[in-house]
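Figure S4 source data
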Amino acid sequence: MMTSCGSDSGGQGRGGGGWQQEREAVSVEVASVSTSSISEQIRAFGSIKAQDVVTVIPQVSNRIVRIDADLGDSVSQGDVLAKIYDVPYRDALEQAQAQLRQSRSAYQRDSTSYERQQQLYERNAASRSELDDARSAYESSRAQYESARAALTQSREDLENTEIRSPVDGVVTNRMVAQGDLARTGEPAFEIANIVGYETRLFLPTQDWEEITVGLPVELRFSNRDGIAAEGVVSRISPQLNEATGLGEVVVSLTDISPRVRQGSLMESRVTLRTNENSVVIPRSATIEQIETYIEPETNTVEIRRNYAAFVAVGDTVAEQRQIEIGLEQGERVEVLSGLEPDEKLIITGQRNISDGDRIRVAGQDRRPGQEQHLEGEPPSETAGSNR
């Protein structure tokens, strides 16, 4: 059983023949049907982040006496971010240097003594026990010397670490310490976004997530501004859905960005699944949707069937209704697979007040659909993305 509840069904049916014939021509606007490219896209929002965020942790502990970098500052690898009170570490370095000098003298003395005892032992002028004592003293002094060298290296490194330096080129995104704070080893002091590149992470429902593949192109836009602000590519896809949300994660690496794009910007990503070239494309507003409800008697199930129509002007005087088949939908643009041909005069305003065969009067200048009626002021050559 079929019931009809047409939505936007272009005009009422014809009444009495005499009344219909005397009806005035309806004023309409037309646009020439043209061809262009149209894309199927998936849209989602995500925040821009650096691909790598480095946490800077002090290697020594003491009071911070100076802050040299703050939130938002650009830094190069090796730049000083903060200074830690270094007097104890300078004293430790001097002590290590003195210890090294002392152990070096003892090592040189015992080395010489050991060599002399070896020579005396070879001429039977020294006993075995005297040689063993000399060897033991030599090995002990050598171990102390090597230990002093290691202690000096550590003391020198500790002193150098009283200057907290950036390990990468980047931008300071977080500062967790202030002048006068106690810097502690193991506790973060700064976070730096490594400017090797930016990315955004999208979390998609299963149906969209399953259609995404690595390498697909992505356009990124600000929700409150026109135009493409950045371009990217799908670089990674999570192999599983999140257990808590049921969403799949997709990582988009940005390949071309404008100066407006910054770390933390919330942007709309449009992942292009496929693009059809040279398709007949018309404004969505020019279509008339007809909804039919079909009830299956045996199963008592309801099925919604959607049909679409459009009107063309014949000789600029008569409206002719066409049944059309819709393909890709891209924002306020739709692809027509059948029912319209290029250069036909598509009625784009006034079509809801007419019926098939009505007299019309064309007003205004001829336009091409999609050149003036398009999504968010974008030219038809831009990929604008469908509502999904």
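Figure S5 source data
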Amino acid sequence: MLSEFSLIDRYFAQRARAHTRRATLGIGDDCALIAPPPGEVLAVSTDMLVEGRHFLPNVDPHALGHKALAVNLSDLAAMGAAPLGFTLAFSLPAPREDWLAAFSAGLFELADRYDCELIGGDTTAGPLNLCLTIFGSVPPQHALRRDAARPGDDVWVSGTPGDARAGLGLLRGEWTTNETDAAVLRRALERPEPRVALGLALRGVAHAALDVSDGLAGDLLHILERSNVAALIDADAPPKSAALAKLPRDVQRQCALAGGDDYELCFTAPPDRRAAVEAAAQQAGVRATRIGTITALDPADPQRATPSISWRDASGAPLNLTLQGFDHFHAD
């Protein structure tokens, strides 16, 4: 039977030590030692994934290893930061070797792709719970902060938001589709692709950014609140994947605007940088779509007196939409 230390060494520490390049001191000591490149600052983010809240009990452990790191890499992407390393702390009900082999394989395959080293962590017995802290670096003047949106900025979104929520709905039996499209939507849910290359390409181009983890409507509001601005958004502008477009129209809109787990980037940029945004998206190999405009607050207009989103349809007609992002303490 695996002990705590043999588990760590067999499935994590041996591989981590073999790939240590960026950390001054990696896994195996009381603390890791890591420093950003000269002229840059550390970007640090932590995410927790809890069984039953963030993933289903029967999820493929290889996919879970991928997603556990992907959601953290996505935070670096939203800041325009380059990955350096990460720590992993988790509790397990029992040390199953087949589960650990698949989980660590999914984790390290993505880590190797983004040259992001495992530099420490911890493990214990308990309900399945994963907690990763990731470290990246970015020149401070190029960090894509949430408080940097300006009136007149375009609002952009990458990829095809809504696919992950549609995949969750399929697993829950909320709607159905054909087997091929179901596989596409489920993959979006279980194996999100962090937009690290796009975040790096948007340095010096975009003003503000974040990743869409809790739904476009809820996450964009974070930018508006931090920047003290409002937004006018075309509810029909976010592009839909072929798989999502086959679901009922009301489901498409709900998934695209209020669904979570997409890990696409929502960002703002001045109109004179549209060509630069499109070039950045092409360089990163991902689609970027302009979906609206940042507006100044207007105390005389009740809809724009505080940070908020005004929704329009494709013709420009106002829409009365009530959309709420994912809330970890009030989720269905």
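Confidence is low (pLDDT under 50) at residues 326-332. The chain has two domains: 4-141, 145-319.
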